[in-house]
Every structure is written in C-alpha cells, then in structure tokens.
Automatic annotation (TrEMBL):
<dbReference type="InterPro" id="IPR050763">
    <property type="entry name" value="ABC_transporter_ATP-binding"/>
</dbReference>
<keyword id="KW-0046">Antibiotic resistance</keyword>
<dbReference type="GO" id="GO:0016887">
    <property type="term" value="F:ATP hydrolysis activity"/>
</dbReference>
<dbReference type="GO" id="GO:0005886">
    <property type="term" value="C:plasma membrane"/>
</dbReference>
<dbReference type="GO" id="GO:0046677">
    <property type="term" value="P:response to antibiotic"/>
</dbReference>
<dbReference type="InterPro" id="IPR027417">
    <property type="entry name" value="P-loop_NTPase"/>
</dbReference>
<keyword id="KW-0813">Transport</keyword>
<dbReference type="GO" id="GO:0005524">
    <property type="term" value="F:ATP binding"/>
</dbReference>
<protein>
    <submittedName>
        <fullName>ABC transporter ATP-binding protein</fullName>
    </submittedName>
</protein>
<keyword id="KW-0067">ATP-binding</keyword>
<keyword id="KW-0547">Nucleotide-binding</keyword>
<dbReference type="InterPro" id="IPR003593">
    <property type="entry name" value="AAA+_ATPase"/>
</dbReference>
<dbReference type="Pfam" id="PF00005">
    <property type="entry name" value="ABC_tran"/>
</dbReference>
<feature type="domain" description="ABC transporter">
    <location>
        <begin position="4"/>
        <end position="246"/>
    </location>
</feature>
<dbReference type="InterPro" id="IPR003439">
    <property type="entry name" value="ABC_transporter-like_ATP-bd"/>
</dbReference>
C-alpha cells in the first residue's frame, strides 16, 4: 500500500456573478489526477502557477474536499477519515504565515506542541531535537520577528515535525529565500528522507527538484502530464539542442518569430536583471543560431551559448506541449463565426 494514493482526483470551483441575472461559472482546477507515493519516497510535484499543485496538496491533506475521485494517505481516506489523516501528516508552506512574530522560536514550538497534543513530558526533548535538526540551536530564545526568511522556513519545518508525522507536505518551502538558506533547507529535507519520512514537495526551482526528488510528476491544466525519475524526464529532451541567447529589450513579437522557426520545439524567456535570456529548444541537428539572431532583428544581443538539456528544459517542453494541446482542443471545440452567427438568428 502506498503512503499516498490518488485516483482520478478532481476539484471544481463554482462562482456566481451578477444580481438581476445571476450566472454560475465553473473552473476545473484539478481534472483527474492519479498518482502514488511510496513509503520513504521524496516525491516532487511541479507545475506552473494555476496548474493545480496547491489544490492537489490541499485535497491530499484534507484542507479541501475532492469534487470527485478518491485519495488515501497511509490507508485512510481523506474525505471519510480526515482526523486520522491529520494525525499522521505535517503541512509546511512557503511564506511568512503560520508563526507568531512576537514569540521566540522556543515559545512558538511550545505553543504548537500543545496544539498537536505532544506529551508534555516529551516536549522539551522533542523541541531541542528539532531545533538541532533545522539548524536553529542557540537561536531559540530570539523573537521570530528578527528571523530571516530562511530561518523562518526552517522553524516552519520544525513546527510541522513536532508530532512526528509519517508524511510531510512541503508546498514551495524555499520560495523567496536566499541561496545559502535554500541550500540549508535542502539539507534538512534530505535528512528527513534519510530518517524515513515520506515527503511530497512542490517547488518552482528545477535544480532543487533534480537534486532532491526520487520521482517527479509534472502537472499542467489540472492533469498529470508526465511522471518519472528526474533522469527519465530529462530523457524526453535528449534529442534536442539548447541555445541560450542573452538579449536586452526583446518583446513578445521577437519570441513569436522564434517560435515559428522550423525545427523549434519550445522557447522560454527568463528575466535576469536588465537582461533577458531566451532559451530555444530545437530538434537536434537543426542549427538555429543564425535563424534566431535574424528573428531578434535589431535587439541588442549579448552572450550566445549551446548546452546540454536539463530538467528545466524537459519541464518547459512538457508544459508547453500541454498548453499547445489545450489550445488545439479549444480551437477544435470553438464554433465557427458563421455557425455562431446562425445560432444568434
């Protein structure tokens, strides 16, 4: 039996607009997600904003009820046995919420230990153990309001582990933290896995997912688009050449021109200060160097490099493929202007 199991999990949000002539609209945030996570596995859930990652996690940890489908955590149904699930899981999310700034780290953990019904006789030792684990020993008497973002995130992890959960949900734990703090967080997460904790991680940082995760699922448009080990996902783009072009002032029209080039499979634009990096994936053997520079026209160009495909390239290819498929479906379902006009008569 897997530690986490989801079968055709769906979540639809309904809203009502208007007063005299109210209209109801429905948004399918998650559309039939199926996955399983083994005991002691560190499983990554990747996807763009709005893809359904957080909604999926909230259904798995009982914060949201599924519209349809089923999910079990350690054998307990998230809809039928939510209390049993909550006793066995921890949930840690990115950001500043969930801690009391005017309390010290120690007092925060004492407070949450009471909420989690940690035996009073075990609290002192448990808190000391967790402060050591997350690297906050010696800082426990300081107020949280003086903590950096990275220190807050490590305290979040300690808080989520107070009741010794068997399954831990980490929802973008390293968001907004500096590189040194992010490295410390990755070390803490690896230590949790080594101790046998099952971890489900969402992140926007591909290098983090590549380094930490045993398996990864990529979700887009509310469905799982790919699932496998980091190596298996990267194998999807081994037949591609990757060209990186540093540019200054490229607009959407330039990116559109590049996307239309023969042999180009995917294009990503990364903002890096005053510069942008245009990452072009093309079929191996179709040299796009000159064609891309021509498409950029008079845009000022800096460094141009070729490199091997990475997990981020595989992720971009999977997400863009899902986006293109969704657009094609919408175009296929959309009535022609003539038909629409006929219906209006």
């Amino acid at each position: 039996m897997p530690a986490i199991e989801a079968v055709d999990l769906c979540r639809t949000y309904s809203s009502r607009t208007g007063w005299l002539s109210p209209r109801r609209s429905h948004v399918d945030a998650v559309r039939g997600v199926s996955l399983d996570v083994g005991h002691g596995e560190l499983f990554g859930l990747l996807g763009p904003n709005g893809a359904g990652k957080t909604t999926t996690i909230k259904m798995l940890n009982t914060l949201l009820l599924p519209t349809s489908g089923t999910a079990r955590v350690l054998g307990y149904d998230v809809a039928r046995d939510p209390v049993a699930v909550r006793r066995r899981i921890g949930y840690i999310f990115g950001g500043d919420r969930g801690l009391y700034d005017r309390l010290s780290a120690m007092d925060n953990l004492r407070y949450f230990a009471e909420i989690y019904h940690v035996d009073p006789r075990e609290q002192r030792g448990r808190i000391a153990e967790l402060l050591e684990l997350v690297g906050l020993s010696g800082r426990e008497k300081e107020r949280v309001e003086g903590f950096s973002r990275g220190m807050r995130q490590r305290l979040h992890i300690a808080r989520g582990l107070l009741h010794r959960p068997d399954v831990l949900f980490l929802d973008e734990p390293s968001i907004g933290v500096d590189p040194v703090a992010a490295r410390d967080l990755r070390h803490t997460i690896r230590t949790l896995k080594e101790r046998g904790t099952t971890v489900l991680l969402t992140t926007h940082y591909m290098a983090e997912a590549d380094e930490l995760c045993d398996r990864i699922a990529v979700i887009a448009a509310g469905t799982i688009q790919a699932l496998g080990t980091p190596a298996e996902l990267k194998a999807r783009v081994t037949d591609r050449d990757i060209l990186e072009v540093e540019v200054y002032g490229a607009g959407e029209e330039h990116v559109t021109r590049i996307r239309r080039l023969s042999g180009v499979e995917a294009v990503q634009v990364e903002e890096r200060g005053t510069a942008q990096t245009v990452v072009v994936q093309s079929r191996r053997g179709t040299d796009q160097h000159s064609a891309v520079l021509t498409a950029l026209g008079s845009v000022r160009v800096g460094r141009v490099t070729h490199r091997e495909p990475s997990l981020e390239d595989a992720y971009v290819a999977i997400v863009e493929g899902a986006t293109d498929s969704a657009r094609a479906t919408e175009t296929h379902l959309m009535p022609s202007s003539r038909s629409a006009a006929g219906q209006g008569n």
